[in-house]
Amino acid sequence: MNNWLALGIIAIVLIILIGNFSTVRRNAKTPLRKKSLNDLQETLPRTNKTSHQMPSIPQNQPHSDANKTSKQEQ
């Protein structure tokens, strides 16, 4: 009689697992999308395609940890 809580939890877990499997089996028959993403057509025209280039920034002083520590000590 003391095991009713453990048996109840096991029964609930089994019911949840069986419910999840039936949901997966039902959804596996119908695809989520009508067309795959690779088969879709582009709707926005892409004109003036150029490669993206970031402007270069000239560095006057090299960045290093040695310069930072010497400035903090002063």
Automatic annotation (TrEMBL):
Residues 28-74 are annotated as: Disordered. Residues 65-74 have a biased composition (Basic and acidic residues). The chain crosses the membrane at residues 6-24. The keyword Membrane applies. The keyword Membrane applies. It comes from the Bacteria. Residues 38-64 have a biased composition (Polar residues). This is Uncharacterized protein. It comes from Thalassomonas viridans. The lineage of its organism: Bacteria, Pseudomonadati, Pseudomonadota, Gammaproteobacteria, Alteromonadales.
